[in-house]
Amino acid sequence: MAALKKIAIFLIAGLLLVIVALDIWGALTLGSLTPSANPALDKDANKVVMVFGATGSVGDGLLKAAVEDPDVEKVYVVTRRSSPRIEAGVASGKVEMLLHEDFTDYSGLATILGQVNTVLWGLGTTSVGMDDETYTWIHVDFPIAFINAWLAARTEGPMSFHTVTGMGTDLNGEQHWAREKGRAEQEAAMLAEGTGLRTFGYRSAFVRPTSEQANVLHYALEALLRPGALVIPSKDLGGAMLEISARTTELPNGALIDNADSIAYAEAYRERMKR
Ligand SMILES: NC(=O)c1ccc[n+]([C@@H]2O[C@H](COP(=O)([O-])OP(=O)(O)OC[C@H]3O[C@@H](n4cnc5c(N)ncnc54)[C@H](OP(=O)(O)O)[C@@H]3O)[C@@H](O)[C@H]2O)c1
């Protein structure tokens, strides 16, 4: 029993040390973008928002941010199934759910795509236990097929595509997931070049679920990772995306947003919403 207690204390102490080391590393290396204090804002930039992955941990917060934003008039959710937040949004009249099965084919959505200004892409999953081919299909083929369809359907107005790739994303990385997420960021930006569409990859670390989904462990991890700017609540991440969309001339197509950058833009968004 005493030996077990010692092992437990040793493991907890080890974990805390790792977190402190991560916090120091995060605080020293993250954050290269500073939101302009006097931005040029386009109130229509987020008029029509489309959300992917809304049934997931990250996407639920992205949807929450879009639904609560007064400048967003309409939210389309493209999904395989519903969720309490999607149902509530549909009941409010602001959200329309588009049930979808094949995320490499958007031919049935062309008319709707022509109206969309902002896409919040939280569709994706862990690489653990998944073969490389399936991982690529979900994280590269899905978003690239979507961007091609969106560009083909586009009409006038600002367009921005925001995808949560994750910390460690690296085109030349050792891990398959890191390379493929880097490839998705790069191919998205290349497709958008010269079209007026701006694409952004969010290299977030831990995205804390919404208050409706989070449990005590999520909040504990949030508290531990906060000093290193390694955590952002999912709704704040959505706010950062909407802020970057509205600042139509501030960040170029293909910009990469690390976690501290997201926190800075989420703060700018909150300040703007107070006015
Ligand atoms: N959670 C974090 O802290 C965090 C941090 C950094 C980056 N990310 C990235 O953010 C993305 C989402 O993560 P998450 O934690 O929100 O995952 P999650 O809770 O598992 O949610 C995954 C979402 O993607 C959808 N999805 C997954 N596979 C699909 C498929 N084959 N076809 C259609 N839809 C599919 C799911 O839809 P269904 O409900 O229909 O399955 C769900 O809406 C991932 O790429 C992840 O790497 C997450």
Rg: 19 Å
Ligands bound to this protein structure: NADP nicotinamide-adenine-dinucleotide phosphate
- Tell how many strands the DSSP assignment holds: 9
Instruction: Estimate the helix proportion, in percent.
Output: 40-55%
**Distance between termini?**
58 Å
> How is the main sheet built?
7 strands, parallel
Number of continuous helical runs = 9
Explained architecture:
The structure is a single chain. The protein is α/β, with parallel strands linked by helices and 275 residues long. The chain has a single domain, classed as NAD(P)-binding Rossmann-like Domain (Rossmann fold), CATH 3.40.50. Helix content is 48%, strand content 15%. It contains nine helices and nine strands. The protein has helices spanning 2-29, 57-68, 84-92, 110-113, 132-153, 176-192, 216-225, 234-246, 259-274, and strands at residues 48-52, 74-79, 95-99, 118-121, 159-164, 197-203, 206-208, 231-233, 256-258. The chain has a seven-stranded parallel β-sheet with strand order 3-2-1-4-5-6-9, sandwiched between helices. A two-stranded parallel ribbon has the order 7-8. Helix 2 (57-68) crosses helix 8 (234-246), helix 5 packs parallel to helix 6 (176-192) and helix 8 packs across helix 9. The protein is globular, with a radius of gyration of 19 Å. The mean pLDDT is 96. Bound molecules: NADP nicotinamide-adenine-dinucleotide phosphate (NAP). Residues 53, 55-59, 80-81, 103, 122-125, 138, 164, 166, 204, 206-207 line the site of NADP nicotinamide-adenine-dinucleotide phosphate.
